[in-house]
Write a structure and sequence with these properties.
Nucleotidyltransferase, domain 5; two-stranded antiparallel sheet; 14 strands; about 20% strand; binds 1,4-dihydronicotinamide adenine dinucleotide; binds magnesium ion
Length: about 400
C-alpha cells in the first residue's frame, strides 16, 4: 500500500500573501510603516511571507489628479489576499469625498459585510471606567446595509406648488441592486426629508453566522444582539428573527437581545459581561466608538472590514489625525493590532496571536509609551519595541 503524506503543516506555515497597502493621509504612512515593520518580524520568525503593492489613493492623489479610486484600481485590489489601510482624510478635501468614494466604495463593492472591532483593555492602558474585572469582547457591526446606503431625499416643498412629491432612489451592492420610488405627501407646506434603511434576511444571517463562529473561535460563551425593534419594527424585527433562527445552529452559545440604548449603559456598568456583540450598521458605528472609549481610546482600537469569502481590509478605527502628520508621535498600536487580525483572517491564527501577545508584552513592560499614553516614545520606537517582542516571544516558543 502506498501512503501519501501531504505536507499539511508545512503548507499552512510556508505561504506567501499579497497585501495591497493604502497608506492614505495624515499619520497614515507613519502608522502603516510600523504595521509593516511588525509583519516583517512575523515573516522572519514564521516562514510566512508577504509581498506588498502600494497604492497611492487618498487626499494627495485626489488633489493632484481629481481621482479618488478608479474602478480599475478596485479590481486590482481584489486580486490581493488582503488590504492594509492607514487612514484617509485631509483638511484640504471637503468632507465626504474620500469617506464615501474611497473607504465606503471598497467596503461595499468588495462586499466586506463584517466590521470587526475587538474591545480589549491592555495592561497599563487607562480606561475611564473604574473597572477591575477586565474588558475583552468583540463588536461586530453589519457593514453594508441598514441606514448607510445613501437612499433618501430632501423635499423642498416651500418652493414647489405641489404638496405631492416623488422621487426615485437606488442602492447598489455586490449581492443586489435596490430601486425604490417614493410618492409622498405631507398635509402641511413644509420642507422635509426621508431616509430609508434597508435590511435583507440573508444580509443579517451571514453576519450572525460570522458572530457565532467567532464566539466559538475565541471561546466566548455568549452572543448579544443589539437593535431597537421596539420602536423601529420591520427593519429590526427582521434582524431579530434572523438572529433567533441562526442561533439555533449554535446550541453551545448562549444568546441575548438588548436595545441599543440599554447596551450603552451596560458597556459602562458591566463591560466584563460581554463576549461577542453584534449590531446593525448605524448602532454598531456608535457603540464601537464607545467600546474604543472604554478601552483606552483610539490609539488602541483596531478594526477590520471582512468578507470571509473575498478580500478583506484591515485598518485602525481612528482617522488621519492631520495635526500629528509627519511628527512621528502617533500611536501605531491600533494599526499593528489590525495587522494581527489580518493574519488571523488569512488563516494564520497563531501568528495573529503572536502580534497581540507582543503588543501586550510591550505594554506590560510599560517602558515605551507614546504621547497619547502620557509618554515620550515616538511612533517608530513603539513599532521597534513590538517587533523586538515578536522575535523574543517566538524564540521562547521554538
Ligand atoms: P481622528 O481619529 O483622525 O483624530 C481624532 C484625534 O484622536 C486626533 O486629533 C488625536 O488626538 C487622536 N488620535 C487619533 N489617532 C491617533 C493615534 N494613532 N495616536 C494618537 N492619537 C490619535 O479623527 P478626526 O480628527 O475626526 O478626523 C481627521 C480626519 O480623518 C478627517 O478627515 C476624517 O474624515 C478622517 N477619518 C478617517 C477615517 C478612516 O480613514 N477610516 C476614520 C475617521 C476619520
Ligand atoms: Mg465611526
Amino acid at each position: 500500500m502506498i501512503v501519501i503524506v501531504l505536507p499539511v503543516v508545512l503548507e499552512a506555515k510556508v505561504k506567501n500573501y499579497s497585501i495591497a497597502v493604502l497608506e492614505g493621509d495624515g499619520i497614515g504612512p507613519e502608522i502603516i510603516r510600523e504595521g509593516l515593520k511588525v509583519l516583517k518580524a512575523v515573516e522572519e520568525v514564521s516562514g510566512v511571507t508577504f509581498s506588498t503593492t502600494y497604492y497611492p489613493y487618498g487626499a494627495e492623489h485626489y488633489l493632484a489628479t481629481g481621482e479618488v479610486l478608479p474602478d480599475s484600481a478596485l479590481r486590482e485590489l481584489e486580486q490581493n489576499n488582503a488590504i492594509f489601510f492607514g487612514a484617509a482624510g485631509d483638511p484640504r478635501v471637503p468632507p465626504g469625498i474620500l469617506e464615501i468614494e474611497l473607504i465606503l466604495k471598497i467596503r461595499f463593492l468588495l462586499d466586506q459585510y463584517i466590521n470587526l472591532r475587538p474591545i480589549h483593555l491592555f495592561p497599563n492602558v487607562v480606561s475611564p471606567l473604574r473597572n477591575d474585572k477586565g474588558i475583552d469582547f468583540y463588536i461586530i457591526r453589519e457593514n453594508t446595509e441598514d441606514f448607510y446606503n445613501g437612499m433618501g431625499h430632501r423635499f423642498d416643498v416651500r418652493n414647489d406648488n405641489s404638496l405631492r412629491q416623488q422621487c426615485a432612489l437606488e442602492m447598489k451592492r455586490k449581492r443586489y441592486r435596490a430601486q425604490v420610488s417614493i410618492d409622498s405627501q405631507l398635509d402641511i407646506k413644509e420642507d422635509y426629508a426621508i431616509t430609508l434603511g434597508l435590511m435583507t434576511k440573508g444580509g443579517a444571517e451571514r453576519v450572525f453566522r460570522y458572530s457565532f463562529d467567532l464566539a466559538r473561535r475565541k471561546g466566548k460563551a455568549k452572543v448579544t444582539s443589539v437593535d431597537k425593534a421596539n420602536v423601529i419594527p420591520h427593519l429590526y424585527t427582521l434582524w431579530r428573527e434572523a438572529f433567533s433562527e441562526v442561533s439555533k445552529e449554535y446550541p453551545d452559545i448562549s444568546t441575548e437581545f438588548t436595545f441599543v440604548d440599554a447596551v450603552t449603559m451596560w458597556f459602562v456598568k458591566n463591560p466584563e459581561n460581554f463576549g461577542v456583540v453584534v449590531a446593525p450598521n448605524l448602532f454598531g458605528d456608535i457603540i464601537s466608538d464607545l467600546g474604543a472609549g472604554i478601552s483606552g481610546g483610539l490609539g488602541f482600537a483596531a478594526g477590520a472590514n471582512i468578507n470571509p469569502g473575498g478580500v478583506s481590509m484591515f485598518e485602525p478605527i481612528h482617522g488621519s489625525a492631520p495635526k500629528y502628520k509627519g511628527l512621528n508621535i502617533a500611536n501605531p498600536i491600533a494599526t499593528i493590532l489590525s495587522g494581527g487580525i489580518m493574519l488571523e483572517e488569512l488563516g494564520q491564527e497563531r501568528l495573529g496571536r503572536l502580534v497581540r501577545e507582543a503588543v501586550t508584552a510591550v505594554l506590560r513592560d510599560n517602558v515605551v509609551r507614546t504621547k497619547d499614553m502620557g509618554g515620550r516614545a515616538t511612533t517608530s520606537e513603539m513599532g521597534d519595541a513590538i517587533a523586538a517582542k515578536v522575535y523574543e516571544i517566538s524564540r521562547g516558543i521554538e
